[in-house]
Write a structure and sequence with these properties.
Helix content is about 50%, strand content about 10%. With about 180 residues, it is an alpha/beta fold. The chain has a single domain (about 5-185), classed as Ribonuclease Inhibitor (Leucine-rich repeat, LRR (right-handed beta-alpha superhelix), Alpha-Beta Horseshoe), CATH 3.80.10. The longest helix is centred in the C-terminal third of the chain and has 28 residues, at about 155-185.
Length: about 180
């Protein structure tokens, strides 16, 4: 039976051991809706800066929202071992995606290579373009998964923006595919 943590429980129970951890490689707290928000993400973020072994962190379905994504993004460049972060269905918008993208674009982003953002339909053109910019800036990034933004129902400018975002999602995929070919060659 899965164990679910509230934000205060995560702050008190999960974060301190992560600071001292010397063996945990993967932490899956996915589908833990009670975890959501800035406090839990900030506690995890501050702990991960000190963690030298955790390589994969799955917070998908935890409803962290933009505040939680911002807290994680603030620490992301300093996470010494993290290569994979999943925030699928986390209630992110362009704001959270943009902050994560800015963190990933920094040269000191460590070995970070994979970001999963599927199921966040409020990530639109601005967020997708920020992610594309991060992929272009950081050759270590190998995978960024984001859903194509939904097309507007009424046509006009909304449809154009959605089509531009869909084109940016395609560009991310093409750039990452080129990297895979270059690595395999």
């Amino acid at each position: 039976m899965p164990t679910f943590f509230s934000a205060p429980t995560c702050t008190a129970w999960c974060a301190p051991p992560l600071r001292r951890n010397c063996g945990l490689l993967e932490l899956d707290l996915s589908e833990n809706g009670e975890l959501g928000g800035h406090a839990a993400a900030a506690a995890l973020s501050s702990a991960l800066v000190h963690n030298t072994t955790l390589r994969r962190l799955n917070l998908g379905g935890c409803l962290l929202g933009d505040d939680g994504a911002i807290a994680l993004a603030q620490g992301l460049p300093g996470f010494p071992a993290l290569i994979f972060l999943s925030l699928y269905r986390s209630g992110l918008t362009d704001v959270g995606a943009g902050e994560l993208a800015n963190a990933m674009a920094q040269e000191c982003a460590g070995p970070f290579a994979e970001l999963e953002l599927r199921g966040n339909p409020a990530i639109r053109l601005t967020g997708v373009v920020a992610l594309l910019t991060a992929v272009e800036a950081n050759p270590a990034l190998k995978s960024v998964e984001v859903d194509g933004p939904l097309l507007g129902r009424s046509g006009g400018a909304g449809t154009e923006a959605a089509e531009a975002a869909a084109a940016a999602v395609t560009a991310i995929g093409e750039l990452l595919a080129e990297r895979r070919v270059a690595v395999e060659a």
